[in-house]
Structures are given as C-alpha cells and as structure tokens.
Design goal:
Layout: H1 2-18, E1 28-35, E2 45-53, E3 61-70, E4 77-82, E5 88-98, E6 104-115, E7 118-130
Antiparallel strand pairs: 1-2, 2-3, 4-5, 5-6, 6-7
Amino acid sequence: MKNRFLLLLLLVVCTSQGFALKSVRAKWNHELSVTILKERKEGEHLVISAISSGTPAVDAVQKYRLDIMVNQWGKPFSTAKHDQRNEPIEILKVTLWETENPKEMKCDFTHEVYENGKEFLRFSGTTILPRLN
C-alpha cells in the first residue's frame, strides 16, 4: 500500500512537471494614471492612458497615448485621435465615480487602437485611481 502511494505521488509530480507552461511576457502593456493641472477648476482630473510595447524599465517604447480632462462624476467622457481621412486611430472613454474613500475614485475606461479601419488593440476595465483634490 505504501509503495502504491509513493508510486502514485511520483507519477503526479512527474506528470505535473511535464505539463508546466513557459512564462511569456505580454507584447503590449497598458498604464492608466491621473493628475491635476495647476490652473484647474475644482473637481477636474486629467486621466492619461498609455500603451507601450517592450519590457518595462528595459526597452519599452510608448506607442499610443491619449489624455482627457474629466470634470464630473458619473458622466462618460471620450476623446479620439484621427488620421487624414478623419478615421479614428485611437479612442479613449473614461467615467470617474466617487468612492466611500475620499482619497480614491473608481475609473471605468476603454482605450481602443485601430489600424486600417479595424480594431487592433483594446484595453478596458474598472480600476481605482487616487483622488488628488
């Protein structure tokens, strides 16, 4: 019985090592940040969305970046970068929400990148950002 258990344990360990997956770095990285401007009005936040390729702190290159001024809670704001034919290249949509914590705010965001009229990249989600007022 003891030998069967040991054999089974050895089989499980060997099998799990055989199926271990190799770790691969992401090709694209997304960063979302917030700041306030010196000449701002009360409640204004500048939300910055940046997409880079490469390894952060090694050879990363920022490929796409949009920023948008948000001045009202719960209202969706959007901005876009267009090409010569007035087709969108990048679109950023942001909605900020107050939270119970006065030092934080919730941010719903979508950053889309288009190439040749088709969606190429999309980063979206909900995160918590610092409230700087």
